[in-house]
Write a structure and sequence with these properties.
Blueprint lengths: L2 E3 L2 H13 L4 E6 L5 H11 L4 E6 L9 H6 L4 H9 L5 E3 L3 H4 L19 H4 L3 H16 L3 E5 L3 H13 L5 E5 L19 H18 L6 H14 L3 E9 L4 E2 L9 E9 L2 E8 L1
Parallel strand pairs: 1-4, 2-3, 2-5, 3-4, 5-6
Antiparallel strand pairs: 7-8, 7-9, 9-10
Bound molecules: adenosine monophosphate (AMP).
Adenosine monophosphate binds next to helix 2 and strand 5.
Amino acid sequence: MVKVVRNQEGLEPQLQQARDEKKRIAFIPTMGALHNGHMALIEKAAKTCEYIVVSIFVNPTQFNESDDFEKYPRDENADIFKLKETACSLVYIPEVSDIYPDKKPKLLDYYDEMFDAYEGVYRPGHFRGVVTVVMRFFDIIEPDEAYFGYKDIQQYRLIKKASAYYGKKTKVVGVETQREDNGLAMSSRNFRLSSSDKKLAGEIYKSLSYIAQRPNSSPKAIAASEAKRLKNLNIAVEYLEVCDLEKIRPVDSWQPKDENVVMFAAKVNGVRLIDNLMF
Ligand code: AMP
């Protein structure tokens, strides 16, 4: 049975009980509108942790356009229903005031150069909001492990770094991107795509997979030609670039195996999608 709590007072006794029972606590932050990508995080967490906390919180500090925040899909009842079928022990659905007691939320002054690359460029302030809310959750929950999707590769790498910087004991674990049959990365934003948009968006994975085969050309040239192909199909590419996986900076030549990542963002019929592929 999944327990639903809405504030820290409700959360604390549950966590204490889990700790008394010597259970390892996993934490999975989400913004709700749950899909099988989120479920994969829960499944992986259940392999090493006996007590799994999923949060549902649409974090206002990581949205720069307030209408995007308003438009974010929310369906709490459906989410709780889905979580009942999983290994999730507790779902934490806080109010904004439970996470940010001050009227004007205080943001951490942590900085990383990744704040100014890719998603950081298109969403100014986004990563500072993400780091702030995740560190806040780590303070409240003190999980042994926390799970993040590689789909948001910059977020995963940043959280790993910020968590080490702030001396958190939580082990940050990454999970493979879950995809639809046509390769489209699962995302809460896909709920806003029509079936023909979804079909079209399958072309994104074709491009990423093709690039990951390191065709006989430079990374920059091949990324540019795939961006052109997608644009011709009416996929409004914002970035498509091959980077080194460590720093997430563009490269001029292919890096050794498992040290490359192709970074991607585009709008399909006004819906912004991000994806990446590590190779
Ligand atoms: P969100 O609810 O979009 O904030 O995502 C919550 C967590 O789920 C983040 O760590 C995401 O990276 C992860 N996630 C979202 N989509 C996927 C996916 N398709 N595959 C794996 N993880 C995902």
